[in-house]
Amino acid sequence: MADLPECPSMSGDRVLPDELRAWMVVLASTGAVEQRLRSVVKERLDVSHDEFLVLCLLAEQPAGLRMTQIAELLGRPKTRLTYQIACLQHAGLVTRKSVCGDKRGVEVAVTEKARQLLTESSGLLAQTVIQALEQFVGPAQRDAMCALLPGLASEADAE
């Protein structure tokens, strides 16, 4: 693991409660992973990071999801999601269909092509996530995470 700078929120006077400090660690580690994944996702899947998130979400839903559900789960505006879905559909990675009985509802599902791409790239993508977290998450960050996941500390003690 690389030498990590001391987390500013971990030293000195603590202004934030443990839970909020832990949430900041989650956000920072997520950012580190996203930054690493962007180039790998573009190179291997030829999609943006946001489109990749849509594919990952849909890959776990064999029947697909409604556009409104995808927007809610990913915290994305529906208008932006519409554009992303159109790009993925143009690339042959998702299908769209109207929801029976709801003229405004649209359901999206991944194609076999998308499943194949995700399967072929999953090892490299998983390794990219691990490497990003290994560089970011040190003892201070791990301790901060225990505020959100108290079981994390007891699991580590059991090892």
Automatic annotation (TrEMBL):
Pfam families: MarR
HTH marR-type domain location: 19-154
InterPro entries registered for this protein in UniProt: HTH_MarR-typ (IPR000835), MarR/SlyA-like (IPR039422), WH-like_DNA-bd_sf (IPR036388), WH_DNA-bd_sf (IPR036390)
Descriptive protein name: HTH marR-type domain-containing protein
Source organism per UniProt: Streptomyces plumbiresistens
